[in-house]
């Protein structure tokens, strides 16, 4: 099954995402901030990284920059989730190197569908 990193600073939301994905059989790691996310990424090959836009230590955009431009992980799929859902924010996220953008709030069903679509091409 696919290996996924969930980087989300809101504990309740992170736990909901992790529980939902584990129930579907995905192998999940979790990070509470951008620094922890980068540490996981350096040590593990992920099929998908799900990043919150606004996190302590490093923002989701800064994590994308590290992944894409400094750590040779250009092939991993990245999905950004954010309450910042203006078109300019979405454009910035995609230009930074994210493959997908999902606006908060979202339902667990919507999350599962999007992740399934990403991982299944």
UniProtKB/TrEMBL annotation:
Gene3D superfamilies per the UniProt record, alphabetical: 3.40.50.2300
The protein's matches in Pfam families, at most eight in alphabetical order, are given as: Response_reg
- The Response regulatory domain extends over 3-119
Q: State the Gene Ontology terms under molecular function.
A: DNA binding; kinase activity
User: What InterPro entries does the record point to?
Assistant: Bact_response_regulator, CheY-like_superfamily, Sig_transdc_resp-reg_receiver
Q: CDD domains, from UniProt?
A: REC_OmpR
- Which PANTHER family would you find in this protein's record? RESPONSE REGULATORY DOMAIN-CONTAINING PROTEIN, STRESS RESPONSE REGULATOR PROTEIN 1
Q: Which protein are we looking at?
A: Histidine kinase
Taxonomic source organism: Rossellomorea marisflavi
